[in-house]
């Protein structure tokens, strides 16, 4: 079977002529309601058949026994608690870095001592020099950045640097 091509024909709409609308005449005739007839009500038939209630016995009601499921507690073995020994961390004797053997080097803490609080601050702002961290000041002194005639004055200002013979942070004062 071979389908032949379908060519649609042109559709020309039919002319529409509107028809005149004439309203229906309104008359003033009286309106008479339709008659309503009451239909008789027939009640449902009632029979005199006896009603038999379900039998009620006077015997006691015994509920079925409830047997609780056995509960087996998980075994608990007490473990002795042993406090971990607390001992102070061993303090290894640190040593101060060697002071360069140079006439330009300045040890800001003085002979045989070095900075124990590198974050401590030395304030030279009253002398228009600003503030310096103790660790940076010590490094600058070792590198020769502090003039030798100024070194003694710098040493007198390093109270916040924790200068000590090992360079380790000074031990905190015991609390009461």
What this model shows, in words?
There is one protein chain. The chain is low in regular secondary structure and 176 residues long. Strand 1 and strand 2 form a beta hairpin. Helix content is 10%, strand content 3%. The chain has a two-stranded antiparallel ribbon with strand order 1-2. It contains two helices and two strands.
Approximate helicity band: under 10%
Q: What string, H for helix and E for strand, traces the elements in order?
A: EEHH
Strand order of the largest sheet: 1-2
Cα shape = elongated
Largest sheet: 2 strands, antiparallel
N-to-C span: 114 Å
For the secondary structure, the number of strands is: 2
Poorly predicted parts: none
Strand content: under 5%
Question: Quaternary arrangement of the chains shown?
Answer: single chain
Helix vs. strand class: little secondary structure
Number of helical runs? 2
Round the mean pLDDT to the nearest integer and report it. 79
Question: How do the strands and helices of this protein lay out in sequence?
Answer:
Blueprint: E1 121-123, E2 131-133, H1 134-142, H2 148-155
């Amino acid at each position: 079977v071979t389908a032949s091509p379908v060519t649609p024909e042109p559709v020309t709409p039919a002319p529409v002529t509107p028809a005149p609308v004439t309203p229906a005449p309104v008359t003033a005739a009286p309106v008479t309601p339709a008659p309503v007839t009451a239909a008789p009500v027939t009640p449902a038939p009632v029979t005199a058949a006896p009603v038999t209630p379900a039998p009620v016995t006077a015997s006691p009601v015994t509920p079925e026994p409830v047997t609780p499921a056995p509960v087996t507690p998980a075994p608990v073995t007490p473990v002795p608690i042993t406090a971990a020994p607390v001992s102070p961390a061993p303090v290894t004797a640190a040593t101060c870095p060697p002071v360069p053997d140079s006439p330009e080097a300045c040890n800001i803490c003085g002979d045989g001592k070095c900075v124990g609080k590198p974050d401590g601050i030395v304030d030279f702002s009253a002398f228009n020099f600003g503030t310096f961290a103790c660790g940076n000041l010590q490094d600058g002194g070792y590198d020769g950045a502090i003039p030798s005639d100024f070194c003694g004055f710098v040493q007198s200002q390093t109270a916040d640097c924790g200068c000590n013979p090992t360079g380790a942070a000074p031990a905190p004062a015991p609390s009461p």
